[in-house]
Design brief:
1389 residues, alpha+beta
Length: 1389
Amino acid sequence: MSSLAKLSIRGVRAFSPEDEEQIVEFYFPFTIIVGQNGCGKTTIIECLKYAITGGLPPGSKAGQAFVHDPRQSGSKQSKATVKLRFNTRTGQPTVVIRSMELTRNKTTLSFKQLDGVIRTSDAVTGTRSNLSHKCSELDSTLPALLGISKAILDNVLFCHQEEASWPLQEGAVLKKKFDDIFDSTRYTKALDAFRKKEKDLLSTCKDIKITLAGLDSTKTAVEGYRRELREQKEAEEDLANARINVGKEIETTEKDIDYYEGIVDKIDDIQTELSKMQGMVDQHKAALDRQQKMVDIDMSGTHTLDDLSIMLADYDNSVGRETAKQELVESEIQELNDKIDSLHKSEMDLKSTLGKLESEKETYEQHLRQRLVLMEGIASSYNFSLLEYTQSQQINTSFRQSLTAGSQSVDTEQLVEISQEDMQNFFRKAEDLKSNLESDLKKHKHRVQRDEDVLQKDLLDLGGKLGALEKDKEELLKQKREGREEMNQLNKDISSSSRLRRGEVEEAKKNAERLANERDEANSDPRLQNIEIEIRQIEDKWEELKRKQTDIKVELDALQESAEAHTAIATLDEELTREYETLEESVKDYSSLLCRFNLQDLEKLPKMSGDGQAVVDAVEQMGIEIRDKLNDAQDRLGMATSAYNKQESAFAEKSWALRTIRQNLQVLEQQKNVSEGAVVKVRAVVEKLREDNPGVLLNENDPTALRKLIDEKIEDINDSLASTDPSVIKSVMKRLLKLANSNNPVCPCCEQKLDTPEKLRTYSDRGKLLWSDNSPLLSDLAEERVAAKSEYQSWRLTIDKHSSAIQNYVDLQSELKARESDNQSLDGEVNLLSHILAQLKDEMEDLRAEAVDLEELAKASDRWKDTSLRIGQKAMTIHSKRKDLAILNRSSANVRDRRTVDREYTAVTEEIDRLSSKKTGLNHEATKLNQLISQTAQQAASAESRAKEKATKFADSERAMNRKNEILELQKNLAEREKQVDRDIPSLSMRVKERESEKQRLRQEGSSEESKLHRAIQEFDTSLQHLGTITYQIETYSNSNKAEEHQRILSTLDNYADHIKDLKEKVSASQLILDNLRNIYNNKERRKRQLQYNVQIIEEKNKLAALHEQMRDKKRAMKSIEHYATARDELLQARERKAKLLETKNLSQGRYSEIRDRIRSLTVRLNQPEYRDVDKKHRKATIEYETTHIAAADLKKYQQALDSALLQFHAKKLAEINKSIRELWLMTYKGEDITNIVIQSGQEPGARAQKSYNYRVVMTKGSTELDMRGRCSAGQRVLACIVIRLALAESFGIDCGCIALDEPTVNLDYENKKGLAIALAQIVASRSQQRNFQLILITHDEEFVSMMKTELASLTGFSMPESYFQVVREESADGKLYSKIKKIDWDNM
C-alpha cells in the first residue's frame, strides 16, 4: 500500500529559489505542521498536490503566481523544483521530481513546466533507474502508482484551503465533484458506448441480413447452376461413353460385315465346285452299273478297295494292321478314362468350394435368426407389432400366425428374409421410439425444472419476507439503541440538573473520579497492543500470501499459454482439415476434365501429414502437367488457326473472284434486260414474218437476212399492185351470177342452196354490186396490199432501228455463257473450300474448347496451388507450434495441472480475503476500544463540567423528564414489536428449511428418473447398433451373389456328372468296336476267296464314294461355316445396323457439342465474381450475422449488468460514507441542534445508473431533514466539510491512507474545536494499525495542537512522532524574507 515519505520544495511561492531545499518528512500515523498566517503552510499542500497530480492551485494565474516571482530577486528567470519521495502501492520506493520555470519578458511573465523524472530503486538489488516523462504522462502515471484516482487526490486527500468547503457549495459544483469521485462520467460514457455499439451492431445485423438474403438467392441460383452442371457433366460422360460404345459397335459391325462377306464368298465358291462334282458322279454311276452286272457276290458294301487290294497282295501283313487298329482303339479308351479322372478331380474341388459357400449360407441364416430375435425383443420391449414390418415377405404360415396371435416369441429356426424397405420402416419406427424416449427425458427435465422454479420462487418470496423481518428487527434495535442513548443523555441531563445541593456536587465529583479511573483502566488495556501485534502479523502473512499468489498467477499464466497453444493447434488442425477437404472436393469437381486429359492419376491427393509439403508438391506437379497440356493444346490450336486462316484467305480470294463474276453477270443481265425490249420487238416482227412465210427459216439474230426478206416482200407487193386488172374481176363475177339461173342454184362460196326467191334475190344483188365499177373487191384488194406494204415497211424500220441492239444482245449472250461457266467453276472451288473451312473450324472449335477446358483447369490448379500453399503454411505453423509446445512441456514438466493450481490460487485468494476480513475486524475492535476510551474520557470531562452547568440546565431537566416518559413508552412499543418479529422469524425460517428440503428431494427424484431414462436410451441405442451391424452383414451377403455362385457350382457339378456319363458311354462304344475288330480278325480266312470278285466293283464304288465323300466334305464344309444359313441375312442386317449407328453417332456428336457449350457457359457463369465463392461468402456472412447478433445481445447484458452494478455500488458506497459521517459527526460536533448529517443523491423514480445524480448534504434537526447549505453557521460548515472528507477518505482511500487537513479549525468554537481534536485523535489511534495511514495536519492554532497532544497522550496503541514541523518567514542574505521549514522536537511544543 502506498505512503508518503518526504517532500522538498525550492522556488515555489515564498520559498527561495536560490537557498537549499526545504524538506518536510511525513510520519506515521500523523504529521503536524504549524505556522503563522502567511508563512507558507498552504504552499506545502499545494506542492504535495502538484507533485502527485500536476494540478496547479486556484488563483495561480496558470502557474505564474505559483513560482517565485523573478522580479523580487531582480533576475530574468526563476526556477522551481518539487521532489516527493513515496512508496507505491506495491511498496517500491519511488521519487518524483517536477520542475518549473518562470521567465520575465518586457511586460509579461511566461510560465513553463519542464519534463519530470521518476526515479525508482530495486528493493532487492538496490539499483536505481531514472525515467524521464512528459508532464501529461506523469499526471496519469503517479495516481496509478499510488493506487487512487485523481478526483480523490484533488477533492479529498489534498484539497486546497480555498476549495475545502466544496461539499456545501451549489448543486452543480457538488454534482461535478461527486461524479468525479464516483467516476460516474467514465461509466456513463462506457454505458453510452455500449448502447451506441449495440445500436451499430444491430444496424450492422440488419445490413448483413439483407446481404445474407441476397446471398441466399445467389446461393440457390449457384446450387441450381451446379446441379445443372453436374447433370450436364453426367450427360457428357454418358454421351462420351455412348459415343465410345457406338464407335465400338460400328467397329464390331464393320468386322461383322467383313466377316459375313467372307462367309458368303466361301459359300459361293463351294457351290460352284459341287456343281462340277455332280457331273462326275453321274458318269461313275453309269460305269458302276455296268460293272455290277458282271459279278455274282457283291462285297463292296463291307470293304474298301484298299482293304481288298492289301488283303489280296499280302494277306499276312493284314494281321499287323488289324492289331494296330485294336491298339488305336485301346489308346482312345485310355484317353477317355484319363478325361474321366480329370473331371472327377475338378468335381472334388468344386465340392470343397461348395462346402465353404454352404458354411457362409449357414452364417447368413444364423444372422437372419438373430435379427429376428433382436427385432422381436425390441418390439416386445416397446409394445408394437412386428407383423407390420414383414408384410412384403413370403413368410411361412406358422410364423405369420404366431405374430398375428400376439405371441411373445417365435421359432428361431425359421428363416425370415425381411426386405430392405421393411427394415427401413422398422428403423424409422425405432428412431421414433428413441425420439419419444428423448422427448420423455426432455419433458421430465422440463417438469422437474418447472417444479424447482416454483419452489425457488417460494424460497425467494419467503427469503424476501424473512429479510424484511430481519431488516425490521434491525431497525427496531436501532431505534431502541437510539432511544437508550437518548435516555442516557436525558439521564445525564437530569442528573446534572439535580446538582442544586452540595451532596449532589460531592456525588458528581466522586462520579467524575470513578469515570477518570475507568478511563485510566481503559487506556491501560493490553488488548490494544495485542491488536497492533496481530495486525502486523496478519500484514506479514498477507504480504507472504500476496507473493505466493503472484507466483501461482505466473504458473496459471504458463498453463493458460499452454492451453491457448493447444487450442490454437486444434483450431489450425480443424482449418487445415477443412481446407484440405475443400481442396479435395474442388479437385473432384474437375475429375471429368482430368480424366478427359488423362490426368486422373493426379486426382487423388496424398494424405495430409507432417508439414504438408507432399500436398504442395502434388498440387504443383498437377499444375505443371496441366500447363504442359495447355501449352500443347494452345500450340495445336495455333497451328489449326494458322491453317484455318490460310484456307480462309484462299476462300476469301475465291469468294471475291466469285462475287466479282456474279457482279459482272448482274451487270450483263442488266444490259441484256435493257436490250431485251428491242429484241422482243424484233422477235414480234420475226413471228409475223414466220406466219406470212411458214416455210422460210428466219434467224432473229441476223438483221441483214430479215431486212433482205422484208425488202423482197415489199417488192412483191409492189409488183402485185401493178399487175391487178378490174376486168378480170368483172368477168369472174359475171360467171358467178350466171350460176344463179341454173336448175339447182348453189352459192359457189359457201355452197348454200338458193332454194328461195329471197335468197336468189340477195345473191343477185350482191353479185351485181361486186360486178359493177364501184365493186368493193377492187377497193379492198388495193387497201390490203397497201396496208401489207405499210406493215412491211414498219417492220423494216423496226429492224433497222434495233439492229445494233440485236447485235449487242447476241454479244451479251455469248459473254454471259462464258461468265456462267467461270461462275460454276469458281462456285465448285468455293464450296470445296467452304467444306474444308467447316472441317478446320470444327477442329479448331474442338481445340479451342479443349484449350478453354485446360485454361479452366489451369486456373483451378492456380487456386489449388494457393490453397495448398495455405495448407502448407498452416501445416508448418502447426508443426512449429507443436515443437514450441513440446519445448514448453519439457520446460514445465513438473508443472501441476490447472485444476490443482486453480484450487490453490482460490485457496490463497480466500486466505488473503480472510486475513483482510480479520484485519478489518481487528481495526473495528481497536476503533471500539478507542471509542470506549474516548467515551470514558469524555464522560469524565462531562462529569467535571456538569456540576457547573446544573443550575442552567434545571429547566431542561423538566423537558427531559417528559421526553424520558415518551421514550419509555416508545421503548415499550418497540419491545412489543420486537417480540412479534421474534415470533415471526422462526416460523418463516422453518418454512424456508422445509422448502429447501423439498427442493433437495425433488432434485434427487428428478436425477434418479433422469438416470433411468438415460439408461433406457443407451440400451435402446445399443440394441439398434447391434441390429444395424447384423443387418449390414445380411445385406453384404445378399449383395455378394454367394447364393448365385452356390447354384452355379451345383449346376457345374451336374454338368460334370453328365459329361462323365457321356465319356463312359463312349468308352463302352469303343469297347464294342474293339470286340468287333477282334471278331473280324478271326473271320478273315473265310472271306479271302471273295475278295478278287469284288475288286473291280469296289474300285468303281470307291471312285463314287470318293466323289460323294468330296461332295459331302464340301457340303459339310459349307454347313460348318458359322452362320451358313443366316450369313446373307446377317450381312444385310449388319449393313443396316451400321447405317443406324452412324446416324446415332452423328446425333450424339451434335448433342455432345451442345452439352459442352452448356458446360462451358455454366462454368464461365459460376466463375463470375457474383457467383464465385458464394458458399464461402454465405458462410462468412452467416457467421458474421450470428456473431454480431450475439455480440449485440452480450453488449446489452453487459450494459444491464454494469447498470445494476453501478446502482448497487453507488448505494453501497453512499451508505458506507453516510455511516462514517454519522459516527464522525456524533464524535466531533458538540452542539445539540444537528443530530446527524447525510449525503443524499436525488434520482427520479425508475431512473437508471446512467442518469445524473443530484447530490445534496442534508442535516437532521430533531426529526426534520433540511438542506444544510444556507442553513448552517460557518463553523458547522467547516466541521461538516471536514467530516465528509474524512468519510470519503475512509471509503475511497484504501490503497493510499494519506489525508491532509489545512486549517481545519477555521470558524470553530472551543467545544467543536475540542470535539474535532478528540475525533482526530480517535481516528489516529484506530487507524494507526494500518501501515500506510498518514494524517497531515496544517494549522496556525497552537491551542488546537495542544488539545490534539492531550487527547493523543490519553490514548495508547500507537507511537507518537518524535517531531513536528514549523513554517516561519526568515530574512535571507539578500535581505528578503523567505519561507523556512523547521523540524522541532515534539516535547518542546
